[in-house]
UniProtKB/TrEMBL annotation:
Protein name per Swiss-Prot or TrEMBL: CD276 antigen-like
Regions that span the bilayer: 235-257
Region named Disordered: 267-288
PANTHER family: FIBRONECTIN TYPE-III DOMAIN-CONTAINING PROTEIN, T-LYMPHOCYTE ACTIVATION ANTIGEN
Entry-linked InterPro entries: BTN3A2-like_Ig-C, Ig-like_dom, Ig-like_dom_sf, Ig-like_fold, Ig_V-set, T-cell_Activation_Regulation
Lineage summary: Eukaryota, Metazoa, Chordata, Craniata, Vertebrata
Native source organism of the sequence: Erpetoichthys calabaricus (Rope fish)
Record localization: Cell membrane
Length: 288
């Protein structure tokens, strides 16, 4: 029965566009199949899935021999599908290191064409966190304000866009973007936008993942100019000024009151002394 099988081995031309895209942390199914009308005996099938490796020779990530899995880790075949010639591989918990080429090698006992192979290219992608914007410095003498945008945990490297007052900001010389990789190979990005602020501005940061064709957009950051802020949030200075004024007014009142009381006292004293004052010149008068 085996020799009636017609095995078709397909040659794949690999380009990045043909790559399967897997999401980091999720599961991906890498296809590999053989067209067959009849059911295969699993004991007659040998399947090996290999992964390329820069530092070592190809690594066998899965092997299926005589109806049993011999090597497996995060991988799994669809057992009920194998006898139908479907040798697709399920790879779970995808990581950055899984990027590359996967080769499906299979051999059916009794078939003289011996080994067949198919190569599949896998690329991975990870979503960035929603970026957030902070103001990292207040306006200096020349009205320059720095805005900082941060996002993390994505792959591959992102494109950073800023929008100012809802318009895409084009001056790349005013933007300073740094990217770093964590131990899992995921990127963190910090971008600083330096603006010369003359009025109120709203700033938004957009992190673009081209591979996922996905943008993560920060909430709009509102920056109000100094004069606007004084009119808007004067609570603390007003309280300070008010309490200072209260203390001052009370002090002045106390002083005035004390002066008035002194005056009253001295007026009564003066009333008696006035007689002397009047008398004195009168008395002095004749001395001159
Ligand atoms: C496979 O090869 C062997 C020896 O070369 C031959 O005897 C046999 O007929 C071949 N079988 C098929 C299915 O071609
Ligand atoms: C290559 O193989 C080594 C040893 O198994 C492994 O530690 C390393 O992560 C592999 N590198 C890639 C890029 O798959
Ligand atoms: C192989 O099996 C998987 C899992 O059931 C299925 O999703 C896939 O479409 C099958 N491939 C073919 C070529 O039938
Ligand atoms: C603003 O950012 C630029 C570029 O990152 C930096 O050179 C400058 O020192 C920053 N200014 C302030 C006031 O933090
Ligand atoms: C992401 O944002 C950039 C800049 O605004 C834009 O050019 C691009 O088309 C957007 N991509 C998606 C998928 O929305
Ligand atoms: C800035 O915004 C504040 C609060 O929305 C507003 O009161 C003020 O008039 C604005 N200033 C300018 C220059 O637009």
């Amino acid at each position: 029965t085996v020799h009636l099988l017609s095995l078709t081995s397909v040659c794949f031309l690999i380009s990045a566009d043909d790559c399967l895209t897997a999401i980091i942390g999720e599961t991906v199914q890498i296809p590999c199949s053989l067209k067959t009308e009849t059911s295969l005996k699993t004991e007659d099938i040998l399947i090996e899935w290999e992964k390329d490796n820069i530092t070592a020779k190809d690594i066998t990530v899965h092997s299926f021999i005589k109806g049993e899995d011999k090597i497996k880790d995060r991988t799994q075949l669809f057992i009920s599908e194998v006898s139908r010639g479907n040798f697709s591989l399920r790879l779970s918990d995808v990581s950055v290191a899984d990027e590359g080429e996967f080769e499906c090698i299979y051999h059916i006992n009794g078939d003289n064409n011996s080994k067949h192979q198919a190569v599949r290219c896998l690329q991975v992608a990870g979503r960035y966190s929603v970026p957030y914007v902070t103001r990292s410095s207040s306006a200096s003498k020349n009205s320059e304000v720095n805005f900082t945008c941060k996002a993390a945990g994505g792959y591959p490297e992102p494109k950073v866009h800023w929008s100012v007052n809802k318009e895409l900001f084009q001056e790349s010389s005013r933007v300073n973007t740094r990217k770093s990789k964590d131990s899992k190979g995921l990127y963190s990005v910090t971008s600083v936008l330096t603006l010369t602020v003359t009025g109120n501005v709203s700033v938004t940061c957009i992190i673009e993942n081209e591979r996922l064709e996905k943008n993560e957009t920060s909430v709009e950051f509102q920056y109000l100019t100094q004069s606007a802020k004084e009119a808007g949030i004067p609570l603390v200075p007003v309280v300070v000024v008010l309490s200072a004024a209260t203390v001052l007014i009370t002090l002045v009142l106390i002083i005035i009151l004390m002066k008035m009381m002194k005056k009253k006292k001295s007026m009564t004293q003066n009333a008696s002394r006035e007689d002397d004052d009047i008398q004195a010149p009168l008395r002095q008068g004749p001395d001159n």
